[in-house]
Design a protein that fits this description.
Helices cover about 0% and strands about 55% of the residues. The chain contains no helices and 10 strands. The protein has strands at about 5-10, 15, 20, 30-35, 40-45, 50-60, 70-75, 80-85, 95-100, 105. The chain has a 5-stranded antiparallel β-sheet with strand order 3-2-1-4-10, with no helix packed on it. A hairpin with a 7-residue loop joins β6 (about 50-60) and β7. The radius of gyration is 14 Å and the shape is globular. The two termini are about 20 Å apart.
Length: about 110
């Protein structure tokens, strides 16, 4: 499970997205970029450590092991992103700060 985000790849290999700047696992050419972000690669972080987003829904994912996984869907502008969240740690309508961890897969556009 993953989500593709659009962004702009810079000359130094970073990709600027609506959810912040990410350093992908591989370096691509400068210009438009597609980035594969898995729910475990995006995190809710302390204020000031990420991009402010709104929680628009909470989804439940069937368990791969014993426990159901909670996924928060967050929005910045018209862009949405899914990320794993702890049980009841966020609520719909809440404003949170989100950061995508480095190492996401850069896809060819």
């Amino acid at each position: 499970m993953g989500q593709i985000l659009t962004g702009e790849s810079t000359a130094n290999g970073e990709v600027k997205t609506a959810f912040g700047v990410v350093k992908p696992a591989t370096v691509g050419k400068a210009g438009s970029a597609l980035l594969l972000v898995r729910p475990g690669q995006a995190r809710i972080v302390a204020s000031g450590e990420g991009v402010e987003a709104e929680v628009v829904s909470i989804e439940l994912r069937p368990p791969e092991a014993r426990e159901v996984r909670r996924i928060a869907v967050v929005r910045v502008g018209e862009n949405t992103l899914r990320l794993f969240t702890d049980e009841r740690s966020v609520a719909v309508g809440q404003r949170v700060c989100v950061r995508i961890e480095d190492g996401c897969e850069l896809l060819e556009e």
